[in-house]
């Protein structure tokens, strides 16, 4: 899992995720785009070693002395992967100060910008990205900065400016590394800016530019989501029909089940209840089908007469499947979970669902991004919630203690549940992709439907995470009472 709201990154064992400052770039971008040496820098041993070295490398005034550019970068990378952002920035800044003409200054500026973004210091992140884009415009780092400065503008609530910056990237670098995602980001940013007509125009441009590719399919999916948010139900049905003819291959942000559910929902909202019933029935069911669970919920509400038998059959099949795999859904740490959850008005089964996805109940789990323990907390995230969870002077090693992880993780889940009441999908999405992102996705969805919200989740990894956690939650609800007693 992840507590990863740019400031709160947590990465799960089963799905390593680091916040990506770009709504259509995989969240793992930050990790995958970092130098190999950075990826080797995770772990307490490396972190403690560079801290000892840094204590010896300071002068009498406490200022970092000159090291080689390679050494400044090495230490910055180790601090960065362990989320010691201030210490990382000190080394990047030292490289810039001591070696202003070195070719690696652009890399250091990118590190400063990225770490500020991850720390939720969006103004500072934007300034660093903007400086990088202006100073090194013909480099890869400069191109990245133009693209990712738009994400900082989004987080600053400047959606219209963000859209214009994505469009600037497309116009300046039509063959750039981020051209496809910049087109798609422009669409969603225009939607967030309240410019649906411009979003529609950009959808048409994207479809033409990338005809026959996954990017075109994603543009059609953006069209479907736009029409649903605007309540254009007939056009939504027509677009979902077109989308259902496409191949849902790698790189496509939607699935066939998702599109089938959104079509059924649109028919339902348009008052075409018989057609909606048939469309909901067409959504694949089963305990691993998130949209199948949602379709069942809708079917239960609208079924009447002979139709109830069809619905009961689907519901009963899920219950039977859940029973058959009960051994894959244990309830360890029962008392600690019940105590922490009930004190915070959480469903213990939801906490279990998060833990199962985060660490598969392994208390000593550690991710490449420095997340630790059952709930895969990073130290910066854990320290934010430790005091309100009744803990003080928290150390990294304590995150491997089950009770500590459960208490702190539950405290964060409580905050998210208060922020997004009655929408566990948004809570799960926040835990993985950051609540600042989720606030935008909820606003963009506009409809009060969990499936519509989930379709708006802008990170592929986070969308998959939400669906897995909610599937876990449904199965736990089938198998256990709220007191975690086996049914």
Structural description of this entry:
This protein is an all-alpha fold. The protein has a domain of 152 residues: Lysozyme (Orthogonal Bundle), CATH 1.10.530.10. Helix content is 64%, strand content 0%. It has 25 helices and no strands. The chain is flat. The N terminus is likely disordered.
Short description:
The protein contains 25 helices and no strands. The chain has 487 residues and is an all-alpha fold. It is flat, with a radius of gyration of 24 Å.
Key traits:
487 residues, mainly alpha, Lysozyme, 25 helices, 0% strand, flat, disordered N terminus
Note the main sheet: none
Instruction: Specify the oligomeric state.
Output: single chain
Strand runs, count: 0
**CATH top-level class of the domain at 328-479:** Mainly Alpha
From the 3D coordinates, which CATH architecture of the domain at 328-479 would you assign? Orthogonal Bundle
- Please estimate the helix content: 55-70%
Write the layout of secondary structure elements.
Blueprint: H1 29-32, H2 36-39, H3 44-56, H4 69-81, H5 85-98, H6 105-118, H7 122-135, H8 140-155, H9 159-172, H10 179-192, H11 196-209, H12 214-230, H13 233-243, H14 256-269, H15 273-281, H16 290-302, H17 307-324, H18 334-343, H19 348-359, H20 379-386, H21 402-419, H22 424-433, H23 435-445, H24 450-456, H25 460-479
